[in-house]
Amino acid sequence: MVTTTSTPPGKNTMVGFDEQLLRLLDKLTGQQSNRQVIPIVGMGGIGKTTLAKNAYEHSVTMHRFDIRTWVTVSQKYNVRELFVQLHSRLVSTEINGEIDEQLLGQKLHKILWGRRYLIVIDDIWSIEAWEEVCRFFPDNNNGSRIVVTTRISNVATHFDSACFELTFLDEDKSWKLFCEKAFGQVGCPSELEDIGKEIVKKCKGLPLSISVIGGLLGRSNRTHKYWKNIAKDLTSILNSGEDENCLSILSLSYTYLPVYLKPCFLYMAIFPEDHDIRVSRLIKLWVAEGFIKPNESQSLEEIARGYINDLIDRNLILKQHLGSNRKIQFCEIHDLLRDLCLKIVHKDKFMCMMEENPGGVESERRIVCNRKGVCCRTLQLAPLTRTLVTSTDGRLSNNRLLRVMSFNDKAKKKYLLRHIVDQVNMRYLAYNEFNNSPSSVKLPTSIDVLWNLQTIIIGREIEAPSQIWEMRQLMHVDIRTLYLPDPPQNQNQDEFILQNLQKLANVTNFVWSEEACKRVVNVRKLHIEYDNDSKSSNDYSVHNISRLRKLESLTFFPYGLPNLLQKLTFPSSLKKLHLDCCNVRWEDLSVIGSLPYLEVLNLNMCWVEGEMWYPVEGEFLRLKFLSILCFDIVYWNADCSHFPVLEKLELIGMDKLEEIPLDIGEIPTLELVKLYGCTESAAISAMKIAVEQENNGNDILRVQVDFDTKEQLESFKKKVEQLATSFTGNNFQANAYF
User: Fold this and answer.
1) Mean pLDDT throughout 330-359?
2) Which of 58, 258, 400, 527 could make a disulfide contact with 555, Cβ separation 3.0–4.6 Å?
3) d(Cα 311, Cα 316) in Å, to the nearest integer?
4) How far apart are CA 595 and CA 580, in angstroms?
């Protein structure tokens, strides 16, 4: 029975490795009680990770191990970061930044001790990396397993265990994989079958190459002439050199990209290997660089999301995680494709990676410096640079051409103030981390010199000057805590309207006067907070929020004034609402339920008056995602008519709720019910929903219950046995975190 799990990146289509999968499952679940290390070896793109994922997520494996977790190791591994990854996926507590790797390893050993565990270590590059971590994986003599994937044969043979050495796909399996990638379930048109098989044959059975080219042709002209040209180019590339075959095939997918997508793809090189890329930030960078081609019907961000989807469809980047609104929140790029980016950006002088080329930056337009300790003088010799992504202290001097500045390491206050001097062309300014300090930073009044600035991201408490209202190009303001002054009075209003502003995050104790609302009339995403200062709730004029008629996402966090919610008036345009630390009345929920476009509702640490929640039919008509954290309700009387299109229900810390209404399972769109830290009776009701829906033939709904401790899980299992419920449990999972 699975008790602790972490999720690997999304499972890929697996074709041609069915026999290897059965063998791997047999090794994972075999009778040998000693801890075993199972290596999977092969060249990049051969399917090592795909095979491991399919075994990891197989139902046999899920029910076999107490703990399953997945970690990816980059070529430039860091032992401490590896332990932090493992720790964060096994327990919910945060890691103290001062704990050394030895102590982290001991903590990991303690978590694993006495439990049957499965750990997948994906893409390990050296024996040294294994030797530094293996002693913290205990041999509990209970059938624990460790799966290791590697591209290097010497690493695989080091484990003195039979290797799973993956070979290339044969022609039939290659063709099947190509058709799935290019045509889905439709199948290949007969007029393209011969030329299609010729193309697939030249891929020489490499799954990654087949997938990428299948994605390319699936999105391209489906004509024999076009595919014939692809076949000709493919032949010349494959014959250019045996060692370069894979990279050459991948370069073809770049060659045939539309012109507007090429810089967007190459820009992926700024992110380190195996990095989780936040899509919203990537989009802002693309916009600041000027990569997005505008049109009249969409915003630049909407167009950029289309670019993201296009690159995913072409198998050049991978979607990793979806947000509550079903939009892609994180993506990643395969190592081979990142290598392709690095080669092209170097050849075309698109970007300078200082780790690879530490000198000669005088004429570089874009500089990426993720290695600490690079000499600041080197950076000061780059007067033509437009983009700087850096983890090193310092600044570019005498450079008024800079458009993008992203500082990715912990910085001091002086570095922020240095950069806001004369960067008149700056579009994107990000200080993603700061040294912890209780004091706020006052931005200089000269900030309006950055009159082209579109995005400002600062991970620290900031006091903004009134000049910020003059920065009319601002689109995204994302500051950890922002104290925003009232807009200037008695001036020409048109000069101070931030027409382009779409996101304003973490604004604290701001008074939403009619005048203020007029200045941010087009804002779509708003995060506002209020602490317990001297003002009364009437002074903040939050009722005027209803004037923001384009607002789609609102986070409201009045942790110092919990009754402030009753003063707030919602605009009817809202699609996503997050309430944090509020006093919520039942009539407030009725008002929220009446919002005509609301799709996502998060109720976090809120208090209600009364124990029973009776939703009203006709409310929450478009709600797709409902998350409730630490709500005090005891009885919840609802059925499928109250949330008719709900897709995901998440209940966390509901330690008084007696049960989930059984009829919730009848919602036809419902895909997931997830409970964490709720009552045992609520967990049993969730299981009953799973039983009933499975018996009714519902193969879409999944129910997951997570307990704080193993003891709670065991108690739950005993209660379930007493109920003598008979069902396969394919749609139900129960876990424990400790």
Assistant:
1) 80
2) 527
3) 5
4) 18
Give CA–CA dist 84/686, Å, rounded. Answer: 33
Contact yes or no for 266/366 (Cβ under 8 A): no
The two three-digit tokens of residue 438, written as one number: 């209780």
Helix, coil or strand: residue 426: coil
Question: What is the rounded radius of gyration, in angstroms, for the C-alpha atoms of the chain?
Answer: 28
Burial string for 496-519 (b: 16+ CB within 10 Å, else e) reads bbbebbbbbbbbbbbebeeebbeb
pTM for the whole structure: 0.70
What tokens appear for 5 in the block?
């799990």
Q: Higher pLDDT residue, 341 or 376?
A: 341
> Residue 92: pLDDT above 80?
no
Classify the phi-psi angles of 285: left when phi > 0, otherwise alpha if psi is within -120 to 50, otherwise beta. alpha
Minimum mean pLDDT among 321-330, 352-361, 661-670: which range? 352-361
| Cα(179)–Cα(584) distance, integer angstroms | 53
Q: Residue 376 and residue 397: Cα distance in Å, rounded?
A: 10
- 111, 626, 655 from 688: Cα distances, Å: 31, 20, 19
Task: Give the separation between CA 438 and CA 322, rounded to whole angstroms.
Answer: 34
Tokens of 275: 């990095």
In 314-394, which ranges are continuous DSSP H helix?
A: 335-347, 376-380
Asked whether the beta carbons of 20 and 124 are under 8 A apart, the reply is no
Phi-psi label, residue 522: left if phi above 0, alpha if psi -120 to 50, beta otherwise: alpha
Percent helix, strand and coil across the chain, each rounded to 5? Answer: 35, 20, 45
CA distances to 18, 193, 196 from 214, in Å: 21, 13, 9
Do 598 and 573 form a contact (C-beta atoms < 8 A)? no
- The torsion angles phi and psi of 348, rounded to 5 degrees, stand at -90, 0
- β-strand 318-322 against 328-332: which pairing, if any? antiparallel
Q: Give residue 349's region: left, alpha or beta (phi > 0; psi -120 to 50).
A: left
Tell me which amino acid residue 205 is: G
For the segment 597-652, what is each residue's pLDDT rounded down to a tens digit? 999 999 988 888 778 888 888 899 999 999 998 778 889 888 888 999 999 999 99
Q: Which two tokens stand for residue 255?
A: 């060659």
Residue type, 445: T
103 pLDDT band, cuts 50/70/90, is confident
Rounded to whole angstroms, what are the CA distances from 703 to 197, 629, 672?
43, 17, 6
Residue 439: how many other CB atoms lie within 10 Å: 8
Cα distance between residue 128 and residue 131, in whole Å:
5
CA distance 176 to 193: 12
DSSP category for residue 372: T
CA distance 304 to 307: 5
Task: Fill in the amino acid letter for 79.
Answer: V
Summarize pLDDT for 508-536 with one digit per residue, the tens: 999 999 999 999 999 999 999 998 765 66
The label of the residue with tokens 């024999």 reads 224
Distance, in Å, from the CA atom of 50 to the CA atom of 120, rounded to the nearest integer, reads: 12
Q: Which of 107-116, 277-286, 346-355, 469-478 has the lowest mean pLDDT?
A: 346-355
Residue of 525, 302, 337, 292 lying closest to 428 (CA atoms): 292
Name the one residue in this structure whose structure tokens are 């915003």. Answer: 299
Average pLDDT over residues 431-451: 76
Q: Which residues contact 332 (CB under 8 A, 6 or more apart)?
A: 9, 274, 275, 276, 277, 317, 318, 320
Q: What is the mean pLDDT of the chain?
A: 83
Collapsed DSSP state (helix, strand, coil) of residue 213: helix
Q: Is residue 236 left, alpha or beta, with left meaning phi > 0 and alpha meaning psi from -120 to 50?
A: alpha
* Identity of the residue numbered 77: Y
CB 186 within 8 A of CB 78: no
Phi, then psi, of 277 in degrees rounded to 5: -100, 120
| pLDDT value at residue 229 | 84
Name the token pair of 670: 């419902």
Percentage of residues in the chain with pLDDT exceeding 70?
Answer: 84
Give the DSSP H/E element, type plus range, for residue 340.
Answer: helix 335-347
